[in-house]
Amino acid sequence: MVEQPWTQQHLVSSSGQISLPAAVPHRWKLDQGGPVDVIDLGFAVLIVPAGEAHRLLGDLLSREDHAAFVASLGADPDLATT
């Protein structure tokens, strides 16, 4: 049986921080803290265990689709490292 995704709404602080629900760090063995990958999709942000972003993006987007997405960002300096 595939576990269904769930959503919860959380606040982002004025300094850009957010707290994860307690079950999330526990599930991903981050109880003591640790690195995560943040994927800015332009319309959403995904937080995944460290090292998983490239694999996940590779599974979701072809090289051509990724290149088109990056090109669509234009010259926005906030997104220059995407």
Task: Please summarize what this structure is.
The protein is an alpha+beta fold.
Can you characterise this structure?
The protein is of the alpha+beta class and 82 residues long. The protein has helices at residues 23-27, 53-60, 63-72, and strands spanning 36-40, 45-49. The model has no long low-confidence stretch (mean pLDDT 79).
Topology record:
Elements: H1 23-27, E1 36-40, E2 45-49, H2 53-60, H3 63-72
Antiparallel strand pairs: 1-2
Structural class: alpha+beta
Oligomer designation: single chain
Strand order of the largest sheet: 1-2
Portion of residues in beta strands equals 5-15%
User: Uncertain spans, ≥5 residues at pLDDT below 50?
Assistant: none
H/E series: HEEHH
Helix fraction, binned, reads 25-40%
Helices, by number, come to 3
Shape: globular
Task: Characterize the main sheet.
Answer: 2 strands, antiparallel
Kindly provide the radius of gyration, computed on alpha-carbon positions and rounded to a whole number of angstroms. 15 Å
Distance between the termini: 35 Å
How many beta strands in the DSSP annotation? 2
Mean pLDDT: 79
Annotation keywords:
82 residues; alpha+beta; two-stranded antiparallel ribbon
